[in-house]
From TrEMBL:
InterPro entries: CO_DH_flav_C, CO_DH_flav_C_dom_sf, Diverse_Substr_Oxidored, FAD-bd_PCMH, FAD-bd_PCMH-like_sf, FAD-bd_PCMH_sub1, FAD-bd_PCMH_sub2, Mopterin_DH_FAD-bd. This is Xanthine dehydrogenase family protein subunit M. Residues 1-182 form the FAD-binding PCMH-type domain. SMART domains: CO_deh_flav_C (SM01092). PROSITE patterns: FAD_PCMH. Gene3D superfamilies: 3.30.465.10, CO dehydrogenase flavoprotein, C-terminal domain (3.30.390.50), Uridine Diphospho-n-acetylenolpyruvylglucosamine Reductase, domain 2 (3.30.43.10).
Length: 299
């Protein structure tokens, strides 16, 4: 099939893009990578009346580290930064390693060359890699329109499957990922049917250990709820204690304990998904702990 008829606009500046989005906000979609949108348009699952192509806007490809002293710093990602940019660490610390590990789970090379991180966030697939990581790390998202900008944390932005807090006429302009402590180990693990398919379940973690004690931990899960979630009960069990095998196993069990009704899946029942979530959470935490040891051995 071919797309339904639509108007096409290719603005050259940020302001032109925002003005174009404001013309017919309810029927307008943004084209960045187009890896999901174009497919849905060809299938006529999506029928935008107006398409705003932002690929000509140079400022939207920014990818930079902002080391603000008051908050530890951020990695700032613009709306046109492709998945491929993260295949190698874009930052020398733990965050750069985690982003690189996550990027390799995304589809296959042609998709990574064209698709964008912010496009993935706006698409809001319930087990998408970047949404899962954004929730895990507490990323901040900047939404812009002709009326100004507003900032939301990733958990507030991702409302449900394929549903976000984007308002008509708004553009997801930037994502800000907090830089991680140097003593942080990271991991991202998935359960999926094929190398290029979306995950059934996934877990991401950033585990910070100092003097043998967990001082901070982030554990995010996808596939156990309508959108990615933080396993805060598991995190609370770990902080202030040494990350032993038994404690990690206890925390992993807690991560899946609150999953009373996982989303339906034709390939697995609720009991299996709860068990698999426990296994993935434990695997992610163990990998993160190992990553700390390996980082200490790096020159």
């Amino acid at each position: 099939m071919k797309p339904a008829p639509f108007d096409y606009v290719a603005p050259a500046t940020r302001q032109e893009a925002l003005e174009a989005l404001a013309v017919a906000p309810d029927g307008t979609r943004v084209l960045a990578g187009g890896q999901s949108l174009v497919l849905e348009m060809n299938q006529r699952a999506a029928r935008p009346r107006r398409l705003v192509d932002i690929n000509n806007i140079a400022d939207f490809d920014r990818l930079e580290v902002d080391r603000a002293e008051e908050d530890g710093g951020w990695l700032r990602v613009g709306a046109l930064v492709r998945h491929r940019a993260f295949e190698q660490p874009v930052e020398s610390g733990p965050l750069g390693r985690l982003l690189a590990r996550t990027a390799h789970f995304i589809a296959h090379p042609p998709v990574r060359c064209r698709g964008t991180l912010l496009g993935s966030l706006a698409y809001a697939h319930p087990t998408g890699e970047w949404p899962t990581l954004a929730v895990t790390l507490g990323a901040e998202l900047v939404l812009a329109s002709v009326d100004g900008t507003r900032t939301l944390d990733a958990e507030s932005f991702l409302i449900g499957p394929f549903t976000t807090a984007l308002r008509p006429g708004e553009l997801l302009e930037e994502a800000r990922f907090p830089l991680l402590r140097p003593t942080t180990g990271t991991a991202f693990v998935e359960l999926r049917r094929t190398a290029a398919s979306f995950a059934h379940l996934s877990a991401a973690t950033a585990l910070s250990v100092e003097d043998g004690i967990v001082v901070d931990v982030r554990l995010g899960m996808a596939g156990i709820a309508p959108q990615p979630v933080r396993a805060r009960d598991a995190e609370h069990r770990l902080v202030g204690r040494p990350p032993t095998d038994s404690l990690i196993a206890e925390a992993a069990t807690a991560a899946a304990a609150g999953v009373t009704d996982p989303p339906p899946d034709p390939h697995s029942g609720s009991a299996y998904r709860r068990h698999a979530a426990t296994v993935l959470a434990e695997r992610a935490l163990l990998k993160a702990r190992q990553d700390i040891s390996e980082d200490m051995e790096r020159p």
